[in-house]
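Example A, followed by Example B.
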Amino acid sequence: MKTLYIILLTTLSIIGYTQQLPIEACTSSFEGINPNHSKAKPLQSILEELTHLGIPGSSMAIYSSEGWWTGSAGYAKIEDKTMMQTCHLQYLQSVAKTYMAVGILKLYELGKIDLDAPITNYLPEKYSRFIKDAAKVTVRMALNHTSGIPEYNLIPAYVTKLLQRPDFFFTAEDYLTYIDKKSLDFEPGSKYSYRNTNYVVLSLICDAITGDHAKFLTETIIKPLGLINTYYRNDPGYLNYPNLVNSYWDRFSNGIVENASLLQRNNVRVLFGDDGIVATPIEAVKFLRGLLEGKLLSEATMKIMKSWAKDSKGNFTYGLGLDYASFGGHPAYGHSGGGIGAGCQLYYFPEKNVYMFIGINLGTVTESPLHTKAEKTVERIYSTLLD
């Protein structure tokens, strides 16, 4: 997972902090599942194996030439044995960056943003003042993580405050204060290095142009695609959903999971552009299908989105909000995400014309023997799906 926090998470604790959140069983209204999908039985078996290895719960959706298949295993909440179901909402974590990037590219198509103009052309001075040499950074550099802007959530003061005051309502400006007066990590445009801060900046740019980036993403992505189980900062009950999974973490990296639901929810509810979306597995796939099948952006803009930055070895690694990955030798476009109490992957495999989402309600940003045990099992998901 190309995200987030530092190892301090394994050493700090929250004393007397009640973590559990209520959850309900749910019933999917989606009627397009192919129960005879050739991958159904082996994939379901692998999901159940993940549960046996200690992953609290997992949920998956795929779309291929055989149509839709969904599967789940384990628990959405361990404490009351609420079974994980595919109608439960999953935290998309950094997959939200792809949605945010689509929003910026929609503004590009509307003629409201020049991708190669400095971010200072659009970012109000009250925010840009926190970014040293901000005028050297273009919108495109923020989108493809070649900006050199420092990472806010690698700052110890931020991680400490997050864990010591989990109810603190961070603003986007708060995140920028953590990088105030810090030099750029490298000359803008000279290399690729993933930074959540880039997408906080992009959300603020979108706010400045549209008035409310969350509303803009809802109007230009969520509603046009008919996504009724996808949510991002745009309703009074945001994240207080009865079908949102409880979240768990291996706080001490000893293979023992603890409920971190309140910390997870409170963290996600104050993230801007770089995180913050929850959705069902089917709707995550519907978003990526809609994007790559041309329902959101023009063909010309999609080519721009898939103009890949390269890593230190010269390999394609990241476009404008799209990750370029490889699984068992199969190239893929999409994004991964990880947080305190969840992790997911959303990818399209062009060689096979297959879309896939898998989410778990175990944090992926702390070291855990559970991750090591599950790694080969997760690899079998891809080999089963693609080979």
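Example B, a separate protein, is given below in the same form.
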Amino acid sequence: MFSTASELLVVFTYAPAGLGHLRVVNTLSDVLADKDSAVLLGSNDKGIESIHKFISLNFIARNLMEWFQRGEQQKIFTRLYRNYLKSGSKNLYQQVLEVFEQRVEVPKKIVFVCTHFGLAHQLANIKPKLEKTIGVKIYLVVQVTDDSPLYIWYVPGSDLTFVPSEKTKQELTEYGVKEKLPKIDFEVVPYPINPFLCEDLSSEQYKLRVKQVERLSKENIQVSVPISGAAVSMDFYRHLINRLNAKSQTFTFHVVSRLVTFTKYFINRAKEWPNVKVYTSSYDREVVDLYDELYKREIISLEITKPSEQSFKALLSTQQVGGSILLFSKPVGRQEYDNLDFMRRHNLIFSQEEQKYLWDKAQKSESISDLSIIKLFENKGKIRGLELPLGSIKAANFIWWCINHGIFEKMMEQGLYENKDFETGSNGVAIFWEKVKNLIKEE
């Protein structure tokens, strides 16, 4: 537990741009010993959510944004976007002042923890003025929420920026040097995962998880299906669930989704499907809690998800609570491609050639020998996820083929092995707070 002294206040900030930022906030805040010494500050900028939703759902806008996230055009876009964010920092300044006006005791030190670059740039812009007005020392800490070196994550004025890999650190550092930006401190720390998900299953619970995906097993297969904040790929999930239901009644799907206008139709339909349980709320924080409660209540063996921040559950062992096998839908946006690249570099998923080999086998309904499976997994760290082929029919056939040919069963066994690489640890939360504590002590 990270202990916050009475003279220290931790302010967690998040933006309404998907649920990933809020999940990280919950993960980092849950370990605080003194909950009264922490404040959650959400952005009032509804434009961020609208832009995020539009880009996620609109094919042309999505491709245009991906183009802006690479090459020289990314540098131009970042300069413009950074200036835009700074121009909108006045409202945030007033919002922060209101938070402190409500407190009986004003702390001596404040740590802002930002899980969205928008608020990070705005806070960096108003930080000197805030320190003067409130009369306190302010620290700005940024947690990058994907292993993606998008230049917008370079926040001049940040006291400490956490990234999931040395690769991202190096690329962002080189960008700062080329652009002649003020130097900032990057720290490579394993991606922060909810400590609850890192807890070990009992031996009986682990046996049940394995039993669910064994060949010829009649055990119910518990499948988590979290819907992203932008509600991307709902048609894909709808068809995939119904096709798997048609193959076997042993599946139980747990759909976790935010209830908003553009998800309401999907949620109402999902409630009528056989073998589907739906968990929903209109409030982002409650949706995040519902997801955690699902893993507390059920032994989940498979999770069908986007390769976003949920990807980093691949750092867990299959013997840990959150260590379900991850089945990734088509990536959307550069950051999701980068997350898959992170997992490939660490042998948490197969290479593209190996993945295609499995897809082809499943598509042709060909058998695969136990010896071939052993060779496929040979010299790997711990394979924790698989990419799904494009299209719900192929994806459903692939999942069913993997069950019937022992692929998931082998992954359960393989996923027990510890990966010695520092970037793939499951203790990122503890390291995060230790480094924040050291930052404060240095002053």
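On Example B: The radius of gyration is 22 Å.
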